[in-house]
Write a structure and sequence with these properties.
Helix content is about 40%, strand content about 10%. With about 425 residues, the protein is an alpha/beta fold. Helix 5 crosses helix 14, helix 14 crosses helix 16 and helix 15 packs antiparallel against helix 16.
Length: about 425
């Protein structure tokens, strides 16, 4: 029998007189499934293990398990590289989190993160044909996480780090990639950066400009903001200023973390200081990955033909109705507006391409190739309300996969 969960909205407030005002869908003790389709969909989880070979009789059993499996084990023991051919290792990714930065929910812990990790895993399969296993860790220390993932790594062809709070996520990714010979990819950083670059390339193309002509302002100096800034500069962006709660991340501040201090050294060529609003004056691009709200006058102060990528969910930093008054191209993180900056456009194809060639890591060149391939899918249909394709465009994953695989070979990290 399904367990019943008390609906917190209907718990007694201490007034026992009269009608409580509850409805058929809002009764004490009612299963959450009965009034919220999200709970109904999640009942029992969103994924399962499925065999790829039949076990119909004793002959099948003897091949799939003992004694047949012993031959395969012995061969792999003698030639370790055979593990890629005779197990699922090269087709499966570990989706790893510690539950400290889950969506817009924050530090909710490993168990509460599992619905998101399951969701990530089925997106891998749906959009990239890549199997993925959710792994929620009951530890938050950098070295604890690194050691745990290193010990799990023999089972996987790649590691997708997910929803790990900054600044620990930067060190965790770096240390894991140093110790492992499989791709390690923090999607909150790099997936967001790849899709942002693709949209920005097409926005610039639409308005007759190059990346080098643009000055951007990023709201948010967490995992996504830092990664986007570095990646856009690597791709040729003219200049970018990154802001946090205290204003522009600049070298004249004495309150910066090591990550922000490093960021300050490579950004803000214009030497801007002060608030986000002051940085936006005359800027060509706004990229929001922080939440909060940008005042309309600040948006109005941006350069003519500006781009506004307000990517916070569920509430963009600048509502599209306001952004369209001043910007040539508007993008958000939401699916109910045009130009959705969605990581699912990137990570399935990036991992599919990396696994296809057994890449030892994911390089900057592979990420830029992914962004370029993603931008190219739009093609001649480029328009202000179409600078990035839909996640459901069936051309996306194959294009990104092929581009990443080719780039891995060109960069010397492919092993087949």
């Amino acid at each position: 029998m399904a367990a019943e969960i008390v609906n917190p909205r209907t718990a007694s407030s201490g007034d026992s007189s009269g009608d409580s005002g509850s409805t058929d869908q809002d009764r004490l003790g009612e299963p959450l499934d009965s009034f919220d389709p999200a709970f109904a969909l999640h009942r029992g989880g969103k994924m399962a293990v499925q065999a790829t070979v039949p076990i119909r009789d004793k002959d099948d059993l003897s091949l799939a398990y003992t004694p047949g499996v012993a031959k395969v084990c012995s061969a792999i023991a003698e030639q370790p590289e055979l593990v890629h051919d005779y197990t699922w290792k090269s087709t499966v990714v570990a989706v790893v989190t510690d539950g400290t930065a889950v969506l817009g929910l924050g530090d909710i812990g490993p168990e509460a993160s599992l619905p998101v990790m399951e969701g990530k895993a089925i997106l891998f399969k749906q959009f990239g044909g890549v199997d993925a296993v959710p792994i929620a860790l009951a530890c938050t220390g950098v070295d604890e996480i690194v050691e745990t993932v290193v010990r799990l790594a023999p089972s996987f062809g790649g590691v997708n780090l997910e929803d790990i709070s900054a600044p620990r996520c930067f060190e965790i990714e770096r240390k894991l990639q140093e110790r492992l010979d499989i791709p390690v990819f923090h999607d909150d950083q790099h997936g967001t950066a790849v899709v942002t670059l693709a949209a920005l390339r097409n926005a610039a193309k639409l308005t007759g400009r190059e990346l080098g002509d643009l000055r951007a302002v990023i709201s948010g100096a967490g995992a996504a903001g830092v990664a986007i800034a570095k990646f856009l500069l690597e791709a040729g962006l003219g200049d970018v200023a990154v802001t946090d709660r205290k204003g522009v991340v600049s070298t004249d501040r004495d309150d910066l973390t090591d990550v922000k201090r490093e960021l300050a050294e490579i950004t803000n060529k214009a030497g801007i200081s002060g608030s986000l609003e002051s940085a936006l004056a005359g800027a060509d691009v706004f990229i929001g990955v922080s939440g909060g709200t940008v005042p309309e006058p600040a948006v109005a102060s941006m350069a003519e033909g500006a781009f506004v990528f307000a990517m916070a969910n569920p509430n963009p930093e600048v509502h599209p109705d306001i952004a369209h008054k001043y910007a040539a191209v508007v993008a958000t993180g939401r699916s109910d507006f045009p130009n959705q900056i969605n990581n699912v456009l990137a990570f399935p194809g990036i991992f599919a391409g990396a696994l296809q060639v057994r890449a030892s890591r994911i390089t900057e060149g592979m990420k830029i190739a992914a962004a370029d391939a993603l931008a190219a899918v739009v093609g001649d249909d480029l328009a202000a309300d179409y600078v990035i394709p839909s996640p459901f465009d069936e051309r996306v994953a194959p294009a990104v996969t092929a581009a990443v695989a080719a780039a891995a070979r060109a960069e010397g990290v492919a092993r087949r």
